[in-house]
Amino acid sequence: MAAHQLPDTAVAYVNGRLSTKQTQFPKTPIFSNAFMPARFEASLEEVETEGIIPNSINGTYFSMQMDHHMPPKFENDILFNGDGIVSSFRIFNGHVDWKRRFVRTDRFKAESDARKALFGRYRNPYTDDDSVRGMVRTAANTNIVFWRGVMLALKEDGPPFALDPVTLETLGRYDFEGQVLSPVFTAHPKADPKTGELLCFGYQAGGDGQCASTELVFYTLSAEGKKTQEVWFEMPYAGFIHDFGFTDDWIIFPLSPLKADFERIKEGGTYWAWDPTEFSYFGIAPRRNAKREDMVWLKAKNSFQGHVAGTYQKDDKLIFDITMADDNIFYWFPEAHVSADAFPQPRPFKAPMSRYEFDLKDFSKNDMIEPTKTQHFLAEFARIDERFLGQPYAQYWALGTDPTKPFDIEKCGLPAMGIWNTLHHYNWETGKEESWWAGPTSQLEEPCFVPTSASSPEGDGYLIAVIDRLDEMRQDLAIFKAQKVLEGPIGLIRLPLRPRRGFHGNFVDYTDIKEFCDRRELGGDIGPAQPAQKPLPWQAAYAAELGKLK
């Protein structure tokens, strides 16, 4: 039977631009099959479980997804431009409750009021509607991190937004009580388990954060929430720094040649363009009391640097473990000569976990450094037992892509952005590697380690990871024994819904949430979390300039 043709069906996109007032999304791979926008908020009490849900797991697993609330202005829009939406799995005594809420950013609220997209291309304010000029345009959609009683919704193109860890209510833009005023903030801040400090940075941090600046700012916040350091460095070019590493004495930043160009941005082009002729860099500086001139930038071969597993000092060496791709992973940001309206296609690449050992006595020995160890498998989203961040560690877990395994296109559709079909566990000390395959109709999202107890040895605990059941259009949250990944999950939390694919997630122990929720009560010793009270400096400057023009 032929499909019924509705009368006067509007064409959603003409010449790549949204051309209808009807709510219709593009029919591109990024908006199809498992990547179709889900857009719903929901709560589910007593989620169905199967197998063993260990009683020692008492806390909440938070997962961040990118989900377009409104059809985008441009047909070739990308997943990274979707609105941030957080799922939480509250796990206690073998029971699980789940909820999902959008991060109500300035962007989300403006578009919700207008009932249409107002913001244009990824990180390009020159493609926005005039009505949102001067507005913080971040979608806060990349990571979700706990800090002193709030969940920070993070995307590196703007400031954090704070959420209540229990209700997921958005409290507002968060500037750490007026202490952090950079226009941009990393999606990967790191808490030092030894000191309780939060280490964080923003790259391309000059101006409004969208003008291709070469400024890099690094902050340290004490365990008590007080800013103890703010230092500004200069990058070799306006490139991409997604993650970083730290030790007791050093910080290290991987700079990839995904470049921003202000003239291209002003002309309405893509914010990023891959430069296959440019060096990558590693920037190393003292962790404490650093000055602008203390940063040393070390050249490396052209590569796309991904997520950091671990970083530590050993004698006079700085050990840095990071995934390194031999080509541009973000194929939707192609070379500068490619039109912003194009639909770039993925290219094959290798992205193994690589260990670098930097000589701290003589930095000149480190230029064009090669890794001392490289794994044979493609890996990303590596995680360690984070009680050992900044310290010597033995093992990591990561997602991988095994091209020798089958994928059921008939049931699942074409795999936009590739398929993470394996979960790896690797031990640097023993060389032992094992992996688990998710099957021909499933893909994995970032794993997260949960220790058995606060005092248990490294790696003694569980691994949590979302599994997207592509053929069933739903998700499971899987629990593995961390040392027996090969055996597969011991328990499944079976969600009967399909949130859009996520990238980063974190587990927060109930005792940490309870302690800070109590302290943040009225009358508590630190009081309620305060959203930002003043506009960012660039916003104030924009408003002043607008006033002069009027």
TrEMBL record:
Q: Look up the domain of life of the source.
A: Eukaryota
Listed GO biological process terms: carotene catabolic process
Q: Which molecular function term from Gene Ontology is one that the record holds?
A: carotenoid dioxygenase activity
Key words, A-Z: Iron, Metal-binding, Oxidoreductase
Cofactor binding notes: Binds 1 Fe(2+) ion per subunit.
Q: Which Pfam families match?
A: RPE65 (PF03055)
What is the required cofactor set for this protein?
Fe(2+)
User: InterPro entries recorded for this chain?
Assistant: Carotenoid_Oase
Q: Which residues form a coiled coil?
A: none
Where Fe cation is bound, by residue? H188, H242, H307, H504
Q: What family does the database annotate?
A: Belongs to the carotenoid oxygenase family.
Designated name of the protein: Carotenoid oxygenase
> What is the protein's species of origin?
Dactylonectria estremocensis
